Automatic annotation (TrEMBL):
GO process annotations (BP): polysaccharide biosynthetic process
Record PANTHER family: DTDP-4-AMINO-4,6-DIDEOXYGALACTOSE TRANSAMINASE (PTHR30244:SF34), TRANSAMINASE (PTHR30244)
Residues at the catalytic site: 179
Keyword S-adenosyl-L-methionine: no
Gene3D superfamilies associated with the record: Aspartate Aminotransferase, domain 1, Type I PLP-dependent aspartate aminotransferase-like (Major domain)
Protein name: dTDP-4-amino-4,6-dideoxygalactose transaminase
Taxonomy of the source species: Bacteria, Bacillati, Actinomycetota, Actinomycetes, Pseudonocardiales
Molecular function GO terms recorded: pyridoxal phosphate binding; transaminase activity
Signal sequence interval, chain numbering: none
Keyword entries, A-Z: Pyridoxal phosphate
Required co-factors: pyridoxal 5'-phosphate
InterPro entries per record: DegT/StrS_aminotransferase (IPR000653), PyrdxlP-dep_Trfase (IPR015424), PyrdxlP-dep_Trfase_major (IPR015421), PyrdxlP-dep_Trfase_small (IPR015422)
UniProt organism field: Pseudonocardia ammonioxydans
Length: 376
C-alpha cells in the first residue's frame, strides 16, 4: 500500500539518536535545549518542546490562561485536538467557519463568533497554508484575546515573508511521522512573548518551581521544589529531540520536494473539471503537508474506495470537529459551519511525502483521471 504520508529517516538521523544513548541524558538534557534552539531559528521565536502536537495545544491553552467560563473560537476543519485541548481546560468552544478556498479560519466568521469572554482565537494552517494572520490578530486583539496558530501542518512555511512561528501570539507544532519533520511523537509551543513561553515551560514540567527567588519556602533545603499551579509531564526526551534536530537540517529539502510533488499533481489535474486543486493565496509560501484534492461531483467516497482497492493510501482530512459525538453530546449540531462541511464532503488527501517518486505521483494522478473518465 502506498501511504498518504510517511517519515523520511536518514543514516544521520539514526546516528543522532544512537549517540544520545551513549550519554548521561536520555531526557530533559542538552539535546532538548539544542532542538528548541534549532526550532527558534526556523520559527523566529523561542520554542518549548513537548511530547506531541496535542500536548502543544494543551500547553499553549494553559499558558494563555484558558479555563472555565472562557470562550475559545476554533476553526472546525481540523483534527479534534485543536478544540478538545481547550475543552479539557473547561473552556466553551465556539466553532467559526472557514474560508471557502483555503479551508482556514475565516476572519469575518471569527469576528462574528468572539464574545467578551473570548480568551483565544485558534486558526489552523490547513494542509500547510498559513492562516490569514493580520485580520485574525486584529479580531483577537480587539476583544482582548490571543491569537493561536495551530501550525501542525506548516513548520517551515511563510506568510508575506514572515515565518510560521512569528505570525501569532502562540504557535503550536506537531512532529508526528507524517508531518513535515518528525521526532516520532512530539510537538512544540512557540511564542514571541516571554510570559507565554515561561507559562508553557512550567506547565509541561508539572508546574515545578525550582528557582529559590520564586519559591514560598526557599529555606526548606537544597532539594526543595514547589508546585504553584498544576501542570503535566509533557517533556520531550533527548532521544526524540536529537532526531528533531537532525531532521531540521533537511527541512528545506523536505519542503522543496513536497512543493514539487504538489505542483506535479496540480499540472496533472489542470484539465479535470470534476476536481478542484488546492488554493494558494498571494503572500503564502506554504510548507505543504497535505495535497487536499476536492472531488466536486459527489463521488469522493467512490474515488476513495477505488484508489484504496488499487493500493493507494488516500485519506480524508478532516471530519468537522463538532461532528464528533463528544461535541454532539454537548449540543453541537451539524450545519453549524457550512463551508467547512462542504470542504469536508469533497476532500481527499493524495499521497504526499518527500520520498514519493515522480512515477508514484504520476500513477496516483493517472488513477484519479481514469476514475473520472479522463485519459492518463
Amino acid at each position: 500500500m502506498l501511504p498518504y504520508g510517511r517519515q523520511s529517516i536518514s543514516s544521520d538521523d539514526v546516528e543522532a539518536v544512537t549517540a544520545v544513548l551513549g550519554t548521561d541524558w536520555l531526557t530533559t538534557g542538552p539535546a532538548v535545549t539544542r532542538f528548541e534552539d534549532d526550532l527558534a531559528v526556523v520559527c523566529g521565536n523561542p520554542a518549548v518542546a513537548v511530547t506531541s502536537g496535542t500536548a502543544a495545544l494543551h500547553v499553549a491553552y494553559a499558558a494563555a490562561g484558558v479555563g472555565p467560563g472562557q470562550d475559545v473560537v476554533v476553526a472546525p476543519l481540523t483534527f479534534v485536538a485543536t478544540a478538545s485541548a481547550a475543552a479539557l481546560h473547561g473552556a466553551n468552544v465556539i466553532f467559526a467557519d472557514v474560508s471557502e478556498d483555503t479551508g482556514n479560519l475565516d476572519p469575518d466568521a471569527a469576528k462574528a463568533a468572539v464574545t467578551p469572554n473570548t480568551t483565544v482565537v485558534s486558526g489552523v494552517d490547513y494542509a500547510g497554508h498559513p492562516i490569514d494572520a493580520g485580520p485574525l490578530r486584529e479580531v483577537a486583539h480587539d476583544t482582548g484575546a490571543l491569537l493561536l496558530e495551530d501550525a501542525a501542518h506548516s513548520v517551515g512555511g511563510t506568510w508575506h515573508g514572515r515565518p510560521v512561528g512569528d505570525l501569532a501570539d502562540l504557535t503550536t507544532l506537531s512532529f508526528f511521522p507524517t508531518k513535515n519533520l518528525t521526532t516520532a511523537e512530539g510537538g512544540a509551543v512557540v511564542s514571541p512573548r516571554a510570559d507565554l513561553v515561561a507559562g508553557a515551560r512550567s506547565f509541561r514540567n508539572h508546574g515545578l518551581v525550582r528557582d529559590k527567588d520564586s519559591q514560598r519556602f526557599p529555606d526548606e533545603g537544597p532539594w526543595h521544589q514547589e508546585v504553584h499551579a498544576f501542570g503535566l509531564n509533557y517533556r520531550l526526551p533527548d532521544l526524540l529531540a536529537a532526531l528533531g534536530s537532525s531532521q531540521l537540517a533537511r527541512l528545506a529539502a523536505f519542503r522543496a520536494r513536497r512543493s514539487e510533488i504538489h505542483a506535479r499533481y496540480d499540472a496533472a489535474f489542470a484539465d479535470v473539471a470534476e476536481v478542484r486543486t488546492p488554493s494558494r493565496r498571494h503572500g503564502a509560501d506554504p510548507a505543504w503537508h497535505l495535497y487536499p484534492l476536492r472531488v466536486l461531483d459527489g463521488r469522493r467516497r467512490a474515488l476513495f474506495e477505488f484508489l484504496r482497492e488499487r493500493e493507494v493510501g488516500v485519506q480524508v482530512n478532516y471530519i468537522p470537529a463538532y461532528w464528533h459525538p463528544v461535541f454532539a453530546d454537548l449540543g453541537y449540531r451539524r450545519g453549524l459551519c457550512p463551508n467547512a462541511e462542504t470542504y469536508y464532503s469533497q476532500q481527499l488527501s493524495l499521497p504526499l511525502f518527500p520520498d514519493l517518486t515522480d512515477s508514484d505521483v504520476d500513477r496516483v494522478a493517472g488513477l484519479v483521471r481514469e476514475f473520472l473518465g479522463h485519459s492518463a
